Amino acid sequence: MTTRWLSPKEMRAWRAYVTATHLLEDALDRQLQQDAGMPHLYYSILANLSDEPERRLRMTDLAERTQITRSRLTYAVARLEKDGLLRRENCRWDKRGSIAALTEEGMAVLERTAPGHVETVRTFLFDKLSEEQVEQLEAICSGIAEGLQEARPASDDVPWRRRSSPSCS
Amino acid sequence: MTTRWLSPKEMRAWRAYVTATHLLEDALDRQLQQDAGMPHLYYSILANLSDEPERRLRMTDLAERTQITRSRLTYAVARLEKDGLLRRENCRWDKRGSIAALTEEGMAVLERTAPGHVETVRTFLFDKLSEEQVEQLEAICSGIAEGLQEARPASDDVPWRRRSSPSCS
Known about the structure:
Number of strands of chain A: 3
Largest interface: A-B, 60 and 60 residues
Oligomer: homodimer
CATH architecture of the domain at 35-115 in chain A: Orthogonal Bundle
Order of helices and strands of chain A: HHEHHEEHHH
Largest sheet of chain A: 3 strands, antiparallel
CATH class of the domain at 35-115 in chain A: Mainly Alpha
Structural class of chain A: mainly alpha
Strand order of the largest sheet of chain A: 1-3-2
Shape of chain A: globular
């Protein structure tokens, strides 16, 4: 198959994308490490739990929401549990379907850290974009995310998915 | 200061951005680990060297191009040198201003791996975008990158920068 190399225009867009995304991730990690002692990935796990009415999610659903691979999520959750920011609970319908629940301390860390995190996101992302560009960014990223979600390999990245078991929430 | 929380529209764009960028980085890492035994970050170091007429760059300039922080770049370059894919050389004007040079083996790895890498970028990014969206993506990412480059902290992220020393290339 002939390689479909990037055009000069695509190459410019690609380089800008790589630079922007890496610098933004560095800036988010730096702020969160400083204010909460954790990288962006860990913060997003806690934030997803806090969005739930009971502040708890099955690991399956947490993996879906955060789109984190099985091995990374297992490691991150163990670390957050060790720090007392979440705890693991068993699901009464399905012992294997473990649940992650945000602790009071985890919630307190989030509440203390969220303003600085949002300020970083606003300063480096949304303050640079027009209203129209916010819509363009959502359309572009939704399209990319959909394609990648459909193509994820079954081996690593469909963690704990058991559609047949009842909900535990 | 009152926190400027995200609007629902901004929140949607932010969630799509986080999901798309994390999934794409995972897909790129997976392909490059499989085909070249290295993550995307390492590949981009080799690719930047290969773009140069003499396939070599001062560490200062390599840091500028790749926008990798000092500690990560030092580690990555040491690892790539150990694998025989690049070598460090001294700059004749400035002994501290070490140079990274791509080896023949490094170039061979790049040539073998580039088609698969470009195919991944095309499949998961450019095939999902219209011509117009490619331009929008470049404009959005250039704006974000500029703001972040201006704001980088002097402590960590201005690696090896000595503007007074002459060029070594």
